[in-house]
Design a protein that fits this description.
By secondary structure, the chain is α/β, with parallel strands linked by helices. It is 47% helix and 12% strand. The chain starts with 13 loop residues before the first helix and ends with a strand.
Length: 480
């Protein structure tokens, strides 16, 4: 969405500047004591705190006093940013989207901001070295993939999870490239740079940690907090946005935005942080850590997403149900009680996996995940027969896929040799007769057995061939 550029308002009076500077110094002195206690025991913020979605808030005391009153006074506008450094978001980003969904369900307006400009700069927060530079074309392509992911999740939430008796707030997906493309570097620095102080910028944890690292920090990365602060200002001026959501690693950037807006316009704005999602080993779930579970189907299938949550350690499940689902907390407690009564049924794990998969991929994605689960882990021939070609390839993503002509008299050993599943000669023959070959979940130990329709060749024209424990081959049979 293209929007007109506002001009930054003139500097405040000298007296006001001194007052604001004093407030800023006090604020920075308290930065290590950012408020993280529970907000007032009512309303949206209290609910988010109980679910574990709300971690910190600032200015200090905002979640107990000003913010609850503001949220109750009228619908507010809340934003969260996502830099398109790759073409899909991941599970580590999902909690931020869920935070926006909770605000929207409560009737507030939400903005998902794609950093089409800031992705070319690179956020240093939580990084030990500078990101690889991305071209404008790559960033634009990435932004398209992330926009599709966010819009799909918001649509799924509205259709499948929202109580239709309650009015929803609006949602907009924006790209900050639309307002930076008209700025010249000299004009931008002249009008915005004068409001930032080097001492404050240098004191940020993200800057300090990088300055002490072997690679140091580039000027490009150092300016990232200026751009993110201006994003907040721009959204505040154009959309009336007064609340920003971000991960705990974004705290310094959120503070920069708060200070910048307060200096320039005198308006009070607020920041809320959400916890970073970590693995059972304590590692941040994200692409940098190399353990990303993606939200776009072409990178992580619904089956893989379903299995990721289904396989969570028992200790994670209750917390994840509160964080990643919209189940009432009383229902979460009932599920956990049922789980404790009969852990073998894994009811809580299954509900968690189903709720998240449905949110990310819709009902069809959840049904696909269940079909794939039944086909792979429950040896269901019916489920295998119901799989589409795409689902089969998603399920066995590492398995070779072959299209073969089904000629009359084709035998088991013929099929195995055509796809290279067994060696030629007597050794391959013995592998079959010794029981090392499975076709459609059934052991086949007769090498000369002619392939039988509906047994060896399913009604969808597919054959799942397994040799040993892990070597799968997918055959799509073509008729004469």
């Amino acid at each position: 969405m293209a929007v007109s550029m506002p001009r930054i308002r003139g500097c405040v009076s000298r007296h006001a500047s001194c007052s604001l500077l004093k407030q800023t110094r006090i604020f920075l002195a308290l930065r290590s004591k950012i408020h993280c206690s529970a907000p007032a025991p009512s309303g949206l913020l209290f609910s988010l705190h109980k679910r574990g979605i709300l971690k910190d808030s600032f200015p200090e005391g905002a979640a107990q006093d000003q913010l609850p009153r503001l949220l109750q006074s009228a619908p507010q506008t809340v934003y969260c940013g996502f830099d398109p450094t790759t073409d899909s978001l991941h599970v580590g980003n999902l909690l931020a989207i869920i935070g926006l969904l909770h605000f929207r369900s409560a009737g507030h307006h939400v903005l998902a901001l794609l950093g089409g400009a800031t992705a070319q700069i690179g956020d240093p927060s939580g990084k030990t070295s500078e990101r690889d530079r991305l071209s404008a074309d790559v960033v634009e392509e990435n932004a398209r993939g992330i926009r599709e992911s966010i819009q799909r999740i918001f649509t799924n939430h509205e259709l499948l999870f929202h109580d239709s008796s309650r009015p929803l707030g609006t949602v907009d997906v924006l790209n900050n490239r639309s307002w930076y493309k008209s700025w010249g570097v000299v004009d931008f620095l002249s009008e915005t740079g004068r409001h930032f102080r080097m001492g404050t910028m240098l004191s940020r944890h993200s800057v300090q940690s990088r300055l002490k690292s072997p690679d140091g920090m580039s000027l490009t990365e150092f300016t990232y907090q200026v751009f993110q602060a201006y994003d907040f200002y721009h959204l505040n001026q154009i959309y009336g946005c007064r609340i920003q959501l971000g991960g705990t690693d974004q705290l310094g950037n959120l503070m920069s935005g708060h200070e910048f807006i307060h200096k320039v316009s005198g308006e009070e704005v607020y920041g809320l942080t959400i916890p970073l999602v970590t693995s059972s080993a304590g590692d941040k779930l994200g692409k940098t850590a190399g353990n990303a579970v993606w939200l776009n189907r072409d990178k992580t299938s619904p089956f893989e997403l379903y299995q990721f949550f289904l396989r969570q350690p028992d200790a994670n499940v209750e917390g994840y149900l509160k964080l990643f689902t919209f189940l009432p907390l009383a229902e979460v407690e009932r599920l956990m009680e049922q789980q404790r009564e009969d852990p073998s049924k894994r009811l809580a794990h299954k509900r968690l996996a189903a709720e998240v998969t449905k949110l990310v991929h819709g009902k069809e994605g959840l049904e696909s995940a269940k079909r794939c689960t039944n086909a792979l882990y429950h040896s269901s021939v019916q489920a295998l027969e119901e799989l589409s070609d795409d689902e089969l390839q998603e399920l066995f993503s590492e398995a070779p896929f072959h299209e073969l002509l089904l000629e009359p008299g084709t035998t088991v050993i013929d099929a195995c040799r055509k796809v290279g599943a067994i060696p030629d000669g007597p050794r391959g023959y013995r592998m079959i007769s010794d029981g090392a070959v499975w076709i459609n979940h059934k052991r086949e130990d007769k090498p000369e057995q002619v392939l039988i329709p509906k047994l060896h060749v399913l009604s969808n024209g597919l054959t799942l061939l397994r040799v040993g424990k892990k070597n799968f081959y997918i055959i799509k049979w073509l008729s004469l």
